[in-house]
Design goal:
heterodimer; A: 169 residues; alpha+beta; four-stranded antiparallel sheet; three-stranded antiparallel sheet; 4 helices; elongated; B: six-stranded antiparallel sheet; 20 strands; disordered N terminus
């Protein structure tokens, strides 16, 4: 899976080992287009129904263009950046596009493991795995895994954490 | 309402104190008083219905009180605390005893008149079914409350699978055997860590919560007047004074009103401080809990199970800091904002706040002499200073530019933009102050970090209390080689940030605090 250091991290930290499923690119693309559509549609409706001012067509074109550029460029970047890894010690993720975020949760402090499939994710056969600790600021989410893979990962994590005694606070 | 049949097998259910049959209706009637007065006063005097309505309300309130007392039961079994309440809508709450973090006793003047106390039990978020766990017994006799407090926080028989002091492997590995609070300590009497000095009253007007409290009281008073149909302008003298004020020159009027507000705020905050902190004592009880007792009219007692303590924070809001004061808070799991925010102390001189912070932690790690919150901190790189300046100045400069533009377009408003120039040096001062605050250090037991200008805080977080990390880097930070590190913990706010430290330092800090957590290979 690992193809050298394509990710320019300014941290002296090895990026997590695994990439997400390649289908995650489609997921990000669809989400980006969906977001652009929710902004563009009201503008279109207003422009058509009320015969809105001329500049409205301008912003509409800009919105659509931004959405298309995002869908064309950003999912590839996200796919190169997003990584995850589960070791015997911890769960790590690296995510974000402009703002990068590394999240680390020690296995010994994990309280619950959840899998989640949104409608878009289901369509693409993807799922997210969320690992929660005793802190509201601590959840680590791995997004865009293949469904079967996510379920297997969640099962493994649940087994490991149940073997750890204490209430993990 | 069946009481458990066989006490030999099951722990019997207990009722709240019978005196609640009186207290509860009185409390409700006091709340309804404005409504009742309005019902009685307004309308014609010979209306035969009104007294009956009032009487009916009274009977209902008393009946509700009796029903509430009859239907509320609680019991403490070996594993859990259970509370059943409600008649039509029954509620069952149950808190596992090993998750209890704090036990809070409160007695309002009404409760005190009947020697009763409200017991609030708070438990840790278990991440699952019992989020925001906890229950409240309102109310039991003060003696019973005291017994419950001791019983519920008694950790002398630790649950299996839980370390007695710091419940984690990391703590056990890094620390030699501390006298784990089981044997000899239990017999020693309560140790006093701090008590009130009336000279601290000088800090009362410097805390925002006091000022906010004064505002709340003023608003409440205004509401009551409004409810009673009294307009402040109709009170003799007020109107006349207002007229005379309106006739005076503007600067004098503004000055007088400002002065009046200031006097009200100062007097009000001093009164509030007195009510809140009267008889303040911080003690370490024989069973190893930290206990804060305070209050003049409403007495409060907050107990924190010491093995739930994950650290302390010393808070210095700008005004308080300017007056040389600070306030200490406990970082404890299961102690959110609602449980009095974990406040261990009234606003006090800075040195005293640091001393109490250290004293509160001392038994967790006996032998550590220095107060962790006074550890000399490593300053952050110069890039962090530049970031403080850009972050403070850019918005202000945008504001100045906008004001200048407004002045250009509407010449009538041209006087605004020179005024906004005042903000520039203020922002620069704030930036310098914020950079001075930045720093972090790792002691053998604590991760210490400080940040903030308007609201500065120094936090000493137990290393074994760190249950995760997040490292964030914005594009600007990436260019400057900085990151924002957040130590995630189950206590307090859930996470504490170390702002703008060098990227390599952040990784080293994570590695030193929680060895072995980071992936082994690095570039």
């Amino acid at each position: 899976m690992q193809t050298g250091s394509t990710v320019p991290t300014a941290l002296p930290l090895r990026p997590p080992a695994h990439r997400v499923d390649p289908r995650a690119r489609s997921w990000w693309r669809l989400r980006g287009l969906g977001g652009a559509a929710t902004v563009a549609l009201p503008q279109l409706v207003v422009a058509l129904v009320l015969g809105g001012p001329g500049w409205l067509w301008g912003t509409l074109v800009a919105t659509v263009a931004a959405g298309l550029v995002y869908a064309a460029v950003v999912p590839g970047i996200l796919f190169r950046i997003h990584r995850w890894e589960v070791t015997e010690e911890a769960v790590y993720t690296l995510s974000g596009w402009l703002v990068r975020e590394w999240r680390i949760a020690p296995i010994s402090r994990v309280q619950t493991v959840d899998t989640e499939h949104g409608p878009l994710q289901q369509l693409l056969g993807l799922a997210s795995v969320t690992v929660t600790t005793a802190s509201a600021r601590g959840p680590v989410t791995i997004r865009g895994l293949a469904t079967a893979h996510a379920q297997e990962l969640a099962r493994q994590l649940t087994e490991t954490t149940q073997a750890t005694p204490g209430d993990a606070t | 309402m069946t009481v458990s049949a066989d006490p030999a097998v099951e722990v019997p259910w207990r009722r709240l104190d019978p005196r609640m049959v009186v207290v509860e209706p009185v409390r409700t009637l006091v709340k309804l008083l404005p409504v009742l007065i309005v019902v009685l006063i307004t309308g014609s005097n010979n209306d035969p219905v009104r007294p009956w309505v009032t009487l009916g309300i009274g009977v209902l309130v008393v009946a509700a009180g009796v029903v509430r007392w009859r239907t509320t039961r609680y019991r403490i079994t070996a594993e859990r605390v259970e509370l059943h309440s409600g008649w039509l809508r029954r509620q069952r709450r149950s808190v596992p005893r090993d998750r209890i973090r704090t036990v809070d006793l409160t007695a309002s003047p009404l409760h005190r008149a009947f020697r009763l106390s409200v017991v609030a039990v708070r438990a840790a978020d278990s991440g699952g079914e019992h989020r925001h766990g906890g229950l409240t017994l309102d109310a039991v006799s003060t003696a019973e409350a005291e017994t419950l407090r001791r019983e519920l926080l008694d950790r002398r028989a630790p649950q299996p699978g839980e370390a007695p002091i710091a419940g984690s492997d990391a703590a056990r590995a890094t620390e030699p055997t501390t006298g784990s609070g089981t044997g000899p300590v239990a017999e020693s009497p309560a140790e006093e860590l701090a008590r009130l000095h009336w000279s601290w009253l000088r800090f009362a007007p410097l805390t925002f919560s006091s000022l906010a409290g004064v505002g709340a009281i003023a608003a409440a008073a205004f509401n009551v007047l409004n409810e009673l149909g009294v307009s402040p302008t109709e009170v003799d003298g007020v109107d006349a004074a207002a007229e005379r004020l309106a006739a005076a020159p503007l600067w004098l009027a503004v000055g007088l009103v400002g002065l009046a507000l200031l006097v009200v705020a100062v007097v009000g905050s001093v009164l509030l401080f007195t009510e809140r902190w009267w008889g303040y004592r911080l003690t370490r009880e024989a069973d190893g809990t930290l206990r804060v007792r305070r209050g003049l009219l409403t007495t409060r007692s907050l107990s924190v199970a010491e093995e739930r303590l994950r650290g302390v924070g010393v808070h210095e809001p700008l005004l308080l800091r300017a007056g040389g004061g600070a306030q200490t808070r406990a970082l404890s799991t299961g102690l959110g904002r609602e449980a009095q925010g974990g406040v261990l102390q009234p606003p006090a001189p800075r040195a005293e706040a640091h001393r109490v912070a250290g004293a509160a932690l001392r038994r967790l790690h006996p032998g550590t002499e220095a107060d962790p919150t006074r550890t000399p901190l490593r300053p952050h790189p110069p890039a962090a200073r530049r970031r403080r300046y850009t972050r403070a100045l850019v918005p202000v400069l945008v504001l100045v530019a906008a004001a200048a533009l407004v002045g250009r377009v509407w010449p009538g408003l041209a006087w605004i933009w020179p005024g906004t120039l005042v903000l520039v040096p203020l922002a620069a001062l704030l930036a310098a102050d914020r950079y001075r605050a930045l720093g972090h250090a790792l002691t053998p037991r604590y991760l210490v970090s400080r940040l903030g200008g308007l609201s500065r805080r120094t936090v000493a977080l137990q290393r074994s209390g760190v249950i995760g990390w997040t490292i964030r880097q914005s594009p600007f930070q990436r260019r400057a080689g900085l990151v924002t590190l957040q130590a995630v913990t189950a206590a307090g706010e859930g996470g504490y940030r170390v702002l703008d430290l060098g990227a390599a330092d952040a990784v080293a800090l994570v590695d030193a605090t929680t060895p072995g957590l980071l992936p082994p290979t690095r570039d």
